[in-house]
Every structure is written in C-alpha cells, then in structure tokens.
Amino acid sequence: MIPYGSFIFFFLIGIFLLPTIVLGLLGKSSKIYNMLVSIVILAVIFGNSKTGAISIILFTIFQIVLIKGYHHYRKERNNTVVFCMMVVLAILPLVLVKVLPLLGLNHVFGFLGVSYITFKSVQIVIETRDGMMKKQTLPIGELIYFLLFFPTVSSGPIDRWRRFEKDVNKTFSKEEYKELLYLGINSIFRGFLYKFILAFLIYNKILVYLPDHATYIHSPFWANVAYMYTYSFYLFFDFAGYSAFAIGVSYLMGVKTPENFNMPFISKNIKDFWNRWHMSLSFWFRDYVYMRFVFWMTKKKWIKNRYTVSNIGYFLLFFIMGVWHGLEWHFIIYGLYQAALIIGYDYFDRWNRKHKLWPKNKFTHVVSVFITFNFICFGFYIFSGQLFK
Amino acid sequence: MEKQKVYELLAEVCQEDVVVEQPDIDLFEEGLLDSFGIITFLVEVEEKFGISVSITEFTREEWNTPNRIAEQLAERV
C-alpha cells in the first residue's frame, strides 16, 4: 500500500496511533509501542510485493551491518580508504537498482524509498567518520527505527540521526505533547488541502489538458507556457502535501521531522530557492556533497581559485542530484540547469558587491522574486520532461 | 583563546565589520555566512588556531552567532 495514497491508509494509521496519542497525552513515552506498531505498518506498506518485502529486509540488514561495522572500526582507527569504501558500499544497492535495468538486466530487487534510506545510512557513515558518533552506542533497534521510520520511509523528509535519536528518547510532558499533537494534526490537514484538493484539482482540471488538448489555447507555444506554470504549482502542492502528511504523522509519534518546504515561490534568488525547496534533500547535498568537496579541495590546495572550487562543488551537487532523480536526459539537464543558475548567480552576486548596481530595496526585491520565479518554473518544465517530447 | 580574534577572523570571512560590533548577531538569518563562508572559516581556524572542527560538527543551530562560535572553539582548545 502506498503511504498516504488512500483513505484506508489514514484510517489504519489513525487506529494504530490511538494508543500513541493516549500515552502522549498522559505524559508517557510511547517509544516501545511506536517501534512495534511500525513493524505492522511497514508490513502493510511493503506487504503487497513479496520481492519488495524481501529486498527491503536484506537491504536493511546490509546497511545495519555496514553502519555497525564501520562504527566499531572507527573507535580504533580512521583510514580514508576504508571510509570511502564504506560510502561506496552504502550507495551500491541504490546504484545497482537504478543502473541494472538500463543494462538490460531485469531484476526483482528495489522497493519504494530505497534512495531515502540510503541517504540516511550514508549520513551516519559520514558522521561516524567525523567522530560525531564516538559517544553513541548506536542501538540496533533504534537504528532500524530511524532507517525505516514509516511516516517518512517512502519519500522523506530526510531526517538526521542525532536529531532523530534525541526526539525518540525524549519523554514529552503532557503540555509539550499537546502542542505536538496540535501541530501534527494541523500539518496532516494541510496535507489534505495541498495534495487531495489543490494538487488533485490542478492536475485533473488543468494539467491533463495541457499542452496538447487545451481547446482554448491555439498556439502550442502558449499551451507549453501554461503547462510550465501549472506543472510547477502541481509539483509543489503534491510534494508539499505529501511532506505535510509525513511531518504531521511524525509529530504524533514525538519526532519533529524537519520541514521540506518554506514558501519556495517567493525566493529572492536561486540560492534562497534551494533553502526553501525540498530542503531536507538540498541540505543533505549541501552538507555531504558540496561542503565536503569544497572543504577537501580547499585543504589540499590543488586549485588556487576558491570560486572555481565552489563552482565545481555546485556542479557536482546538482549533477548528482539530477542523476539521482533518474537516469534520464531531462533530469540530468535539470541538474545542469540548476548548477548553471547557481554559478551564474554567484558571479552576479560578487560583481554586484563590487559595483553595487542592484541595491537592496522593496522594488528590487519584488523584481528579484519575479525573475527567480520564472527561472524556477522553467526548471520544473525541464524536470517534467515535456521539453524533450 | 581571545574571543576578539575569532570575531576578527569571522569579520574577514563575512566581509562585514558588524560581526565584531554585534557578537550576538545571527550569522545565518542575516545572510552573513553561507556554506562557502563556513568552509573558509573552518580552514582558517585550523591554520591559525590549530583547532580542527569537522563540517558535521559545525551545525547551524549551535554555531549561529560570533559569540557562540567563539565559545564552541574555546571548548576545543
């Protein structure tokens, strides 16, 4: 069953989380109950496909062995080659799942959420490398709970282990839980509004007729322009709606899963946009790809110019992000487009600091938001694949 | 380690003197420091003060003001 895809799913969650809510309102910890009930809900989500279920079990065992093994190793030693091997191993299943079908090798592995679990696993390996897990014991039960946390298992938001683990082991007071419950239910209802009303209506009343079947627009050019803006809003409401469900249900379980969206369409530049759109993913790439690469290159001093290093970092980040969306041309070009925008904006920003030709005031702010909005929508137009049809 | 030295280094990285004048200013909310700035700062800290801080250690929640950054660094001397 696809999470948040049907009313039955919400009904099931509602019933299974009743004890969680009661415990929370009594000021008691529901950690053990939540961990047990997660197994049931995971079985509901992955139970329809035998191969999918076996895949996720094998995959989780593999990742746990890797994390625990590296954690153990890192207590005594810290070899860069071992670290790199661990990262490669953690990503390997995801790469195989994506690449094998392209080579004509059909396989039965792969399941919903494989990439999101990989993100979490890689994150723990990297933080272990940085010595952030030294004081931690990484209990297996909690690790599995983190990797397979059912509210976010299919499509995020991508949480961070140290943050997650703190929430899970915290017993909220009655008042604190009431606040969480309120925020959670609020978020779930925002999800209904976004995904089941707005995204649904935009898709079924407008998007399905675009760009080829719009009887009221005769020029293919304008039909595509209409498609571009409509698709952008559809994408936002659909994904922000899903994220609101995932965040809301997490809150009911005492986990403050990070936000994914913060009004992306009012971004004042492309950097601002990536701090507002699919935030848990972009922050993951920022912290674990861009920053690590730039830090490493800056220390090694292989390239003199710091901005060149930064630009290569952006290119890497968005290229990988594009490929991650899928090994199709439109995703890769979407990544390159975003990299070009950010590198271009960086140049402009540095130039403007020197020449001060684009002052900061209300007027330039509105113009900036308007320009950024159009660039964003064109990005989603590439992302939709419509450009290459 | 003197706090003032940390502030001055931050001012150099952010290219704004306001961080020396207002050590409790939120560097991220004000847009004074970004990923690139953090890296520049951490590399400088390693070279000048001999303190190495990993990127994952530098969380934007705990290292958000010049004052707090100086305190975090002082703990690691």
From TrEMBL, chain A:
Chief location of this protein within or outside the cell: membrane
Compartments in which it is found: Cell membrane
Pfam families, per the entry: MBOAT
GO terms for MF: acyltransferase activity
Keywords assigned: Acyltransferase, Cell membrane, Membrane, Transferase, Transmembrane, Transmembrane helix
Pathway assigned in UniProt: Cell wall biogenesis; lipoteichoic acid biosynthesis
GO terms for cellular component: plasma membrane
Listed EC numbers: 2.3.1.-
GO biological process, one term: lipoteichoic acid biosynthetic process
Topology term for the membrane: Multi-pass membrane protein
Function: O-acyltransferase that catalyzes D-alanylation of both teichoic acid and lipoteichoic acid (LTA). D-alanylation of LTA plays an important role in modulating the properties of the cell wall in Gram-positive bacteria, influencing the net charge of the cell wall. Catalyzes D-alanylation from DltC carrier protein.
Classification via PANTHER family: ACYLTRANSFERASE, TEICHOIC ACID D-ALANYLTRANSFERASE
Family per record: Belongs to the membrane-bound acyltransferase family.
UniProt xrefs under NCBIfam families: LTA_dltB
Protein name: Teichoic acid D-alanyltransferase
Annotated organism of origin: Viridibacillus arvi
Source lineage: Bacteria, Bacillati, Bacillota, Bacilli, Bacillales
Automatic annotation (TrEMBL), chain B:
Post-translational modification: 4'-phosphopantetheine is transferred from CoA to a specific serine of apo-DCP.
First-listed, main subcellular location of the protein, grouped into a coarse class: cytoplasm
GO MF entry, a single one: ligase activity
Residues with O-(pantetheine 4'-phosphoryl)serine modification: S35
InterPro entries registered for this protein in UniProt: ACP-like_sf (IPR036736), DltC (IPR003230), PP-bd_ACP (IPR009081)
A GO cellular component entry from the record: cytoplasm
Pfam families: PP-binding
Compartments where located: Cytoplasm
Pathway: Cell wall biogenesis; lipoteichoic acid biosynthesis
Ranges where the Carrier domain occurs: 1-77
Domain of life of the source: Bacteria
GO biological process terms, semicolon-separated: cell wall organization; lipoteichoic acid biosynthetic process
Keyword Transmembrane helix: no
Keywords on record: Cell wall biogenesis/degradation, Cytoplasm, Ligase, Phosphopantetheine, Phosphoprotein
Alphabetical list of HAMAP family matching this protein: DltC
Family statement: Belongs to the DltC family.
Free-text function comment from the UniProt entry: Carrier protein involved in the D-alanylation of lipoteichoic acid (LTA). The loading of thioester-linked D-alanine onto DltC is catalyzed by D-alanine--D-alanyl carrier protein ligase DltA. The DltC-carried D-alanyl group is further transferred to cell membrane phosphatidylglycerol (PG) by forming an ester bond, probably catalyzed by DltD. D-alanylation of LTA plays an important role in modulating the properties of the cell wall in Gram-positive bacteria, influencing the net charge of the cell wall.
Protein name, as recorded: D-alanyl carrier protein
Gene name tied to this protein: dltC
